[in-house]
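Researcher: We're teaching a course module on how sequence relates to structure. For the next exercise, students receive a sequence and then see the predicted structure as tokens, so they can try to spot secondary structure elements on their own. Here is the exercise chain.
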Amino acid sequence: MDVLVAGASGALGQPLLRQLVARGHTVHGLTRTPANAEAISRLGARPVVADAMDREALLAATRDLRLDAVVHALTALKKLPARYRDMAQTNALRTEGMANLLAVARATGARRVVAESMHVGYGLGDWGSQVITEETPFAPPGRTPGLEQVNAAFRALESQLRDAEGITGVAMRYGAFYGPGATESTVAMMRRRLVPLVGDGDGVMHWIHMEDAASATVAALEHASPSPAYNVVDDEPVSWRDFVGRLAEACGTPKPMRLPRAVVTVAAPYAVLFMTTRLRVSNARAKRELGWAPAYPTYREGLAQFGRAAGFATA
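Model: And here is the predicted structure for the students to work with:
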């Protein structure tokens, strides 16, 4: 299979390139930064330098390719966004960026497009004990203008995938990312005590190790007739209190201090909503249809591995 991975130098892109190359696929790695081309080549992929937000330049850079599939693994997030405006670039990548990559798919003959969505697109808030499946309506109207901008971008990404004529579109509703390339910035902030627990830290959601996110994406690319969306999460939802507590143990950082929700909301309203959401989803469809299962079924195994790989003593 000939595959173009957009966001090839990112936290998801790098393990995805490695896994695709290891499975014998021809991989083209899209980056807007020429300096990343060498790293993409070292991973065994062929670099393509263009900005995914510049449609004409993107089409020109991919003009000579004949592809089977395109992967959208683009975000502009280097750390947990604090304010709604921190999501603006990522919102644009989910809307205009998705449209541009679909244009590339049509121009190059690709019949499958797999794109990065997130399980929080079901809606930030308190879902109680409900376990959400892919049949649950996705990206409901946001309760505030800022949240609506985020949800509207999720809707736009998935509706474009669903409605693309002649193309099989697959949305990967990943859990919160962690592992190499995704967690280092959080560890650095924890060392400076800049990651507080909001209230009791009892918000609950799922996480997914970067390697497991990549392996699920490979499975969606290779599966004969995938479903239009998959929840790609680990097997056990966890509270923020337990997750960052285990991360502190794995990486030898101070444990976060607790701050009242009202205090943190002043500086970081989006982050507070993210960290206080209670959201449980099922990964049964991905396991059943894709033959996929996370190598790190819970955050405990994944954080222990991350700590070891980063050279920290683990509990």
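Model: If you want an answer key for the exercise: Residues 2-309 form a domain with the Rossmann fold fold (CATH 3.40.50.720). The chain has a mean pLDDT of 95.
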